[in-house]
């Protein structure tokens, strides 16, 4: 087994042993009175070193962090509260649209800590004829500000079920400075330099699970949280038989005065799969992420979970449908006709459209299970269903497919209309009203938002949140593991991406309402231009000569050393398959494998990441970076 293949298991083994520290074996004896467990204490580190000499030193053994439970009711149900006097909707409709106070604080403080990280990363990258100290001089002298004096890096994670979760994990692990193999490959540190990470559908599962686990290393999450080898997927009998318990949790929410749907149950099911918590995420809130040590220390990117909205029961979702965001700081909307947000801990509250003052308030609505539902194979999952909302696949059941598959017809016998949607009280009701005959923001009159899987219209990369001018993003790593060319309700197909997710964002921005957003030129994935250029099988930079748009580094899932084209609905994976994902993803992220190594790739990554800041600094592009752009830029 190669060292890269072993990396995923090595972390898992340590993670599995960690919670028991000094305990190695469990002997179980059968008695009439029941099962008795006798724990035998041994010196774990000694035995681990005897069994696997490299494990104890290669990965620090420590207990995995549990998710933080902060529900005001102690369970899944939210609670209505007296509104704080200073609680208002942030309504930023005057350009330049400002960030929320919470997001601004996170990004600015993270940027302030980034100068030594940038220095270390650029040194290891192997840049030639490049003065790193001079490049960082403005930041050192005037303060580090993302997108102003230091580069602003973002990550976008596509949907695609557990296939997407594993592929994105493998790429991010290859960019993680905690991964010794990534540091040897000179790609480690990119994850820590990134300020934003967006995810929709399964991408939001990943971000939600990662954030609530104190941003643990990705390989270990499989053993300690996801457990894909244990045959207990979110659609397994082991999970489905707990339906009565999930129903009971949901019923308590309804009794508390809140609308519920099937997505709430889906959220609870996903919570058991993705949240490290004895109560399976019942009281874990997305806003609780703010209390994790790694979040407080501003080590990792701000997670943004994305969901689409349906304009009404049975109405169509289109490329122009509003896209809502969930972060540990806020629930918000960036749209040509409305830019607004509310603090995440007050999701479920309502405000006056006249003065933005909160009038009815709620806490505990941002249950994290709802977020991990961000992949709902039938429509929006709430947080998980909100992330659930980002992953609510059930929502297509509420659409107008003239020939739905058999299982979809079966579901319609039991579940009707908006019960497929993640139901979220609309905090922005009455906002974005049109003037002078303009129709205005399409959801302005909705009392309840109907949130659906962010991938419902095949725009399966959450890029739109990252091209907002206020966020000043310089480069986006677009990590794509979709199966393109197949209808959304067909999650049983094997395949790899063909650029459709990237192309559809560019298509969206041709609509009259969206034409002001800068975005690189992308060849059509519909007529085959994208694949004819081979962009679906190699890293490609888009926007290299576009001064107004962010650069996009497209990293598609493709075969290098292992098949990673599993169907979206495959929930269980063998160790061999998981190892294959991490090895294959490592090779893609580092552009190195057993037969090929691009020794300039780390430098080329650095060239792309500093390009916009180089221009702001009025510095010339080096010959090395020019050669990198010639090699990797789209033509």
Question: How would you explain this protein's 3D organization?
Answer:
Strands 4, 5, 6, 7, 8, 9, 10, 13, 14, 15, 16 and 17 form a twelve-stranded mixed sheet that branches. The chain has a three-stranded antiparallel sheet with strand order 3-12-11, with no helix packed on it. A two-stranded antiparallel ribbon has the order 1-2. Helices cover 32% and strands 14% of the residues. It has 635 residues and is α+β, with helices and mostly antiparallel strands. The protein is globular and about 65 Å long. A hairpin with a 2-residue loop joins strand 9 (330-335) and strand 10 (338-343). The protein has a single domain, classed as Cytosolic phospholipase A2 catalytic domain (3-Layer(aba) Sandwich). 54% of the residues are buried.
